């Protein structure tokens, strides 16, 4: 992809910035990175805790020539790329479908993918990746669910090197996806590192909260769950919790 990198000291959100650049025609592969986000965005309208100088906050502009229906895979390619990069540091990440990477069962990375498309055509996709790299500790309200590379490894890590490792892992995984490979590596990684497969989970639907057993991730990255009556359902995205409550 080449990855021209546009660096900011401070922006409201690298995803918002990347979407602006993408609308103006900026090339696929361009990365927007910021030291600090004043309005970092998480999924479901939540905010994303920014830790200036400590975290990686970046957004990658993509223009895949695939059906919009396949776009959900992009999040998983991102999660697989981050997990591979963390493995290269000697860590043992897990992937919480669809978009979190965990260390010691706590979140170290969140991904927010946003797409602009017409009926059967993707204009652009922005994949925003936030990784807690050198954050020494977290505020009390998130300390039980968030962690950083530094907390897990007991040492600080060079953010530029980790960012390069993520982008270098992303590229071949994305290429396989574009080529439509039957058994792509990113899905193998997402399945192998999944913390949900085999677990009883709960998730929100328009019919209220449901519980089921997560049994697999399908060929386009959807989570397959099985209900107690044996019927199966595929989830495209959403918030999933381990446990039956
Ligand atoms: C989530 O876990 O809810 C997703 C968090 C995504 C955070 C990243 S940080 C870089 C990019 N810019 C944003 O405003 N959000 C994403």
UniProtKB/TrEMBL annotation:
Record GO terms (molecular function): ATP binding; biotin--[biotin carboxyl-carrier protein] ligase activity; DNA binding
Domain BPL/LPL catalytic intervals: 1-178
Residues annotated as binding biotin: 13-15, 37, 41-43, 107
Catalytic activity as recorded in UniProt: biotin + L-lysyl-[protein] + ATP = N(6)-biotinyl-L-lysyl-[protein] + AMP + diphosphate + H(+)
Enzyme Commission number: 6.3.4.15
Function: Acts both as a biotin--[acetyl-CoA-carboxylase] ligase and a repressor.
Name of the molecule in the record: Bifunctional ligase/repressor BirA
